[in-house]
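W.,

You were right to be curious about this one. When I first looked at the sequence I had no strong expectations either way, so I just let the prediction run and decided to look at it fresh. Below is the sequence, 293 residues in total, followed by the output.
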Amino acid sequence: MMREINTNCERVYSMFTSNPFSELTGSISPEIMQYYVIAMVVMVIVGTLLDMRHKKSAQYFFENSKKAQKDAKRTVDSGEKVSMAVATVANEVLTSSEFANPARRASHLMTMYGFIVFVVTTAMMIFNLPGESSSLVALLWHAGALSLCIGGYWFWFGIRVDVASEGLPWNRVSQGDIFIVSLLATCTFALVWSVLQSMGSGAAMLVFALFIISATVLFSTVFWSKFAHMFFKPAAAYQKRTTKADGSREALPADFDLTDPAVQAKFPDIPEYMGDNPENMGPGIKREAPRHY
């Protein structure tokens, strides 16, 4: 019994630490696989540029930055800008602190880091062919795909705003779902293919074909999916910090203490409508736990 358990554990360990692409070199040359990876990178770059042109994202950030400079109340020095850039990377990029929903944040981080690890290790294993990649790289490839699947399916079945808040069916798919659906399909088929290939199953190549189709859809539909937003998110977060620091605040009012006499003198209608000592209005929409983006 123990020998059988040990054998199974060794088989699973061997599967997770083996480069699944190395076994394809007999039927697919390493050069073809490498050209495919390069083509996917080019598709992402072209799709992102087309998305920026179509949505005029770069133009929006440039014009918004010019407007903020015009409305600025103070000058932000270079040291403060560096500090805000570091804070943006540490909070909005690396830890996704903007998500108030803990489940949404955990799901996003598992999906994001799983995707990064999966993509990087895929390139490492393919560009190392026909040589053998380290077992750690293969292990990270499987772990990244698994992390993405857990976070992605968690989001799809339990967190999606239209399903959780609007009562729509979980299997409803719109154009905005191209990214998450193709992403989940890519990593799911990748894991299934690796398992079937290690077992010597004849269905492995069929699943591998589905893996390639899903990956192609993922990287070739950047223009129509939400893929490109990951490049705009840090820029938007940094710009928001800058507008708060220079006082322009995107033409929005500052945060005021309504009980402050100076604020009441500036806005004389506060005592008239809310009294000399306005009550705390409570948590407002935060009274209900957030179940949305």
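Here's what jumped out at me. The longest helix spans residues 30-55. And, maybe more interesting for your project: The chain has a mean pLDDT of 83.

Coffee later to discuss?

I.
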